[in-house]
Structures are given as C-alpha cells and as structure tokens.
UniProtKB/TrEMBL annotation:
<keyword id="KW-0436">Ligase</keyword>
<feature type="transmembrane region" description="Helical">
    <location>
        <begin position="112"/>
        <end position="133"/>
    </location>
</feature>
<feature type="transmembrane region" description="Helical">
    <location>
        <begin position="88"/>
        <end position="106"/>
    </location>
</feature>
<dbReference type="GO" id="GO:0016874">
    <property type="term" value="F:ligase activity"/>
</dbReference>
<feature type="transmembrane region" description="Helical">
    <location>
        <begin position="145"/>
        <end position="167"/>
    </location>
</feature>
<dbReference type="InterPro" id="IPR007016">
    <property type="entry name" value="O-antigen_ligase-rel_domated"/>
</dbReference>
<dbReference type="InterPro" id="IPR051533">
    <property type="entry name" value="WaaL-like"/>
</dbReference>
<feature type="region of interest" description="Disordered">
    <location>
        <begin position="1"/>
        <end position="31"/>
    </location>
</feature>
<keyword id="KW-0472">Membrane</keyword>
<feature type="transmembrane region" description="Helical">
    <location>
        <begin position="416"/>
        <end position="432"/>
    </location>
</feature>
<feature type="transmembrane region" description="Helical">
    <location>
        <begin position="187"/>
        <end position="203"/>
    </location>
</feature>
<protein>
    <submittedName>
        <fullName>O-antigen ligase family protein</fullName>
    </submittedName>
</protein>
<keyword id="KW-0812">Transmembrane</keyword>
<keyword id="KW-1133">Transmembrane helix</keyword>
<feature type="domain" description="O-antigen ligase-related">
    <location>
        <begin position="217"/>
        <end position="363"/>
    </location>
</feature>
<feature type="transmembrane region" description="Helical">
    <location>
        <begin position="253"/>
        <end position="274"/>
    </location>
</feature>
<dbReference type="Pfam" id="PF04932">
    <property type="entry name" value="Wzy_C"/>
</dbReference>
Length: 447
C-alpha cells in the first residue's frame, strides 16, 4: 500500500506520490556540494541590489554569486548523478536563435553577441535555481533570504535618506532627487522594491506580524523614494491580483471577475470626474519634490516613451525584418542622431526590432509558459507536499504578473530578479504537478 500523509484521505483510485526518503527530508547535507550550491544561491538572493560598481560586459558584484551558484550546481549534479531540468528552454532558445541571426547580420555584432552570452548565463542560472529550489526546504530558504535581505536594504536606504548619505542614496544628476540606491536606475530600483513586497507576502517572513508589517512599511518607503510611476502601476496591478485571488478562493471565480471589473470601473469613473491631466498639473505645481518628480512628470514620461516606440519602429523598417541585434537600439539611435537615444524600454517591442519574428514567437511563448505555470501554482492544493513551502504562493505570481506588465515600458528581462521569479514559479508548478500525478521522471522541464 502506498503511504499517505498523516490525516489525509486519498481519493478512491488516486495515485499518491511516495513520501520522501529520510535523506531527502533532511535537506542538503552539511559540507556537500549540494549545500554549497544552496548557500551560494541564497547569497545571490541577498545581494541582488548590489549592481554597482559595474565591470566589463555589464557585470556587477552580485554576479560573483551567480557564477558560484552555476559552478557549484554543476559540481553537485555531476557528483550526485541527478538529472536536471531546464524550464523555459524553448522560448529562450527562440529568443537566443532569433537574436543570434539578427546580431550576425546586423550593424553591431559585437554588442549583440555580448548580450547573447549574458542571455545564456541567465538561462543556465534559472535552470540552476529551479533544480535547487526543488530540493526539500530550499525554495523556502531562497525566498526567505530574498525577503529578509530586501527589508534590510530598504532600512539602509531609508536611513541614508534621513542622514543624506549620498553614496548609499545613489543620487544622480540626471535623475534629480530620485534615489537609485545601488541599482543605477530608479525604475530598476522601484521594480525590486515592488517584487520584494510580494515575496515577503509569499513567504510570510519575518514570522512576527509586527516585524513583517514594519518590513512592508520600509519597502514602501524605499519604493516611494524611487519616485517611479511605472512602479506604482506594478504595485497596483499586483495588489488587485492578490485581492482577486482572495475573493476567488472564498467566493469563486465569478465573484473574483466581478471584483476586478468593479475595480476597473471605479478607477475609470474616478478619472472621468478628475482627469489624469488635472492630477498631473496639481502634482507638478504642488512644490513637493516627491509629487513633482513622480505624478508631475508622468505626462512627459509617456510622451518620451511614445517617441521611443516610433523611433524603434523606424529602425526596424530601415534595418530589415530579421532585426538589428540584441541591445543595439540605443547605439543605433545615437549613431543615426535620433532625438531620443535610449534602450527600447519595452521587452515586447525589443523582441521584434532586435530579434525579428523568432524573437516575437519567443517572447510570446515565454509569457504563455510562465502563465501556465502560474495557473498550476494557483490551483495547487494548499499546504500539501513541497507546495506548502510558501504560505502564500500567489505572492510570487503577483510579482511575476507585475513584471509582465512592466515589460511593456521597461526591459525587465535585463533584471536579474525576474529570472529568480521565473525559476521559483517553475519549481512550485513542478511540485504541484507532482502532488497531483506523482513525481516526474528525472525532473525534466523543457518549455
């Protein structure tokens, strides 16, 4: 007879997964390559914000832990004989192949090949995190390390803002009083703080409710210091999603859809009564730096992004249907003396203009693959098997949804923590599938 979890009543005829062996239940062994790989991955979670100073090829100090995770995971796999899975391999393969073709025939092959090398490292790192996160207890450790470290970094930034320690604030002449911290970009910083809020919610750490809410407050404060309008939209989307999930679990899908529609109608009605332009003018004339540099400049930001979209499409029309090559938009706009020479600021547009039709298929496939896994995570029975490692797994889905929205006005696939989210969601989805139908053979995952 197949053993079952204590207190659980299996359905008649259901095939239940076997209980983990005592060795698996203990988690990584002390002194082993497995434990070393997990430690390196946790340190990579902790030092995610440490992107300055930059090195050759857009490398950062945190990449030391990224490479350590890759190397130690390889040693662990080689010495343990474990078969590794590779989530999102198909969509990322399409993006890399499309980018490789475009880069080789494009005007800046060196820039493109460097970006493709970075893409391959991120793919490998995602696979490493995925396989480590499927070990008992490791997913919780990774999420906890990310959550607690983000609160600590937020506390450091808030303290530095009071003490006016510019080296920590990350003040830049081009960004005014927006605090970049160690990210080098205020929108990158805002996305990190938003994702961190949802990771804290997912893992429910710190355990103390008072400390956890203090952590939320610090993260929101650090987010406000970035003065990012895009980050505000990401936060709103994630919070509405979590509200819809809560309503769905209590009252069903119809009530959840009604809640989302009611929220949309409320926002739309409010904007009819108080137009966005009125709010923008009020913020711009308020004299409060926080409002002036966030809502007060939102109209200008929208205008600049519209110009950038037009310029990128003009580049694509003049460069051919296969694209110009990954990460070439800014340099080409500058070389051809366009008025607004910036990166594409749009993952979906950049997939077309820089990687061609294969890039479009790749980005669409990546979004669909992530959406399928998010659906598995949300449908998984709560507090069962490995899926019980996160008390509120919908928090990770909310963070990934927020980044999917942000991809329409940033290139979030350059953000390292987006790949952390993809890996952890894939690990949760694989665990929920195993809970439902038994363990997979070798943990293989290709799409």
């Amino acid at each position: 007879m197949t053993p079952t979890l204590a207190g659980a009543r299996p359905r008649p005829g259901a095939v239940l997964p076997p209980l983990p062996s005592p060795a698996e239940a203990r988690g990584p062994r002390r002194g082993s390559a497995e434990r070393a790989a997990v430690t390196a991955a946790c340190l990579a979670m902790v030092f995610q914000p440490i992107l300055q100073p930059t090195g050759p090829g857009h490398t950062s100090p945190v990449d030391l832990f990224t490479l350590a995770t890759l190397l130690l995971t390889g040693v662990w796999a080689a010495t343990s004989g474990r078969r590794l899975g590779a989530p999102y391999l198909l969509p990322m393969g399409l993006l890399v192949v499309g980018g490789g073709i475009a880069g080789l025939i494009g005007p800046l092959p060196g820039v493109s090949l460097l970006q493709l090398a970075q893409d391959l490292v991120l793919i490998a790192w995602t696979a490493a995190l995925y396989n480590l996160a499927r070990l008992p207890g490791v997913l919780r450790r990774l999420a906890t390390a990310f959550a607690l470290a983000s609160i600590g970094w937020a506390a450091l930034l808030v303290t530095a803002s009071f003490a006016h320690i510019s080296a920590i604030e990350g003040v830049s002449e081009t960004e005014g009083n927006r605090l970049l911290f160690t990210f080098g970009d205020p929108n990158y910083a805002a996305a990190y703080w938003v994702v961190s809020l949802f990771v804290v919610h997912a893992v429910q750490r710190p355990r103390s409710r008072a400390l956890r809410w203090t952590g939320y407050a610090l993260l929101l404060w650090a987010f406000a210091l970035s003065e990012s309008n895009g980050g505000l939209l990401e936060l709103a989307v994630g919070l509405v999603f979590l509200g819809a999930v809560a309503v769905w679990r209590r009252h069903g899908l119809v009530a959840a859809v009604a809640m989302v529609l009611a929220t949309g109608a409320l926002v739309g009605g409010t904007l009819q009564v108080v137009p966005l332009s009125t709010v923008q003018n009020w913020a711009a004339q308020s004299g409060q730096p926080l409002l002036v540099n966030s809502l007060g400049r939102s109209d200008n930001s929208t205008s600049q992004r519209s110009i950038l979209v037009q310029e990128s499409l003009q580049l694509y029309d003049s460069g051919g249907p296969l694209g110009s090559g990954p990460r070439t938009t800014k340099q080409l706009l500058y070389d051809r003396q366009y008025p607004y020479a910036k990166e594409a600021h749009d993952d979906y547009l950049a997939a077309l203009t820089e990687r061609g039709p294969l890039g479009v298929v790749g980005i669409v496939t990546l979004v669909l693959a992530a959406a399928v896994r998010c659906g598995r995570v949300l449908r998984a029975p709560p507090q069962r098997g490995q899926t019980a490692e996160l008390p509120r797994p919908a928090g990770l889905v909310a963070a990934l949804l927020a980044m999917g929205v942000a991809g329409a006005y940033y290139q979030v696939l350059h953000f390292r923590f987006v790949w952390i989210l993809l890996a952890l969601v894939a690990a949760l989805a694989a665990a929920s599938r195993n809970d439902a139908s038994g363990p997979d053979a070798g943990g293989r995952d290709r799409t």
